Amino acid sequence: MNIYDTKTVSCSKCGKSIGEIAYDAVVTLPKCGQCANPTPEGDDKVAYVVSKYLK
Q1: pTM for the predicted model, two decimal places
Q2: Which of 10-14, 36-40, 43-47 has the highest mean pLDDT?
Q3: Which of 1, 32, 51, 54 has the most C-beta neighbours closer than 10 Å?
Q4: What's the Cα-to-Cα distance from 49 to each of 35, 37, 38, 53, rounded to whole Å?
Q5: Phi, psi at 39, each rounded to 5°
Q6: Is the pLDDT of residue 21 over 80?
Q7: Which ranges of the chain does DSSP label H, i.e. alpha helix?
Q8: Minimal CA–CA distance to 31: which of 13, 46, 6, 44?
Q9: CA–CA dist 30, 9 (Å, integer)
């Protein structure tokens, strides 16, 4: 039994741990920051940023 009455929340897409919430709270399809707002990384990010400003 957890003495703080919390449970760990994991991302529904990638399984990464997000944090802790109250044990009786209900969360539907939690997502981590990367899954909620995916942005390209590395060389792909340059093309992404340029395309955002040249619209």
Answers
A1: 0.60
A2: 10-14
A3: 32
A4: 18, 14, 13, 7
A5: -125, 145
A6: yes
A7: 33-36, 43-53
A8: 13
A9: 7
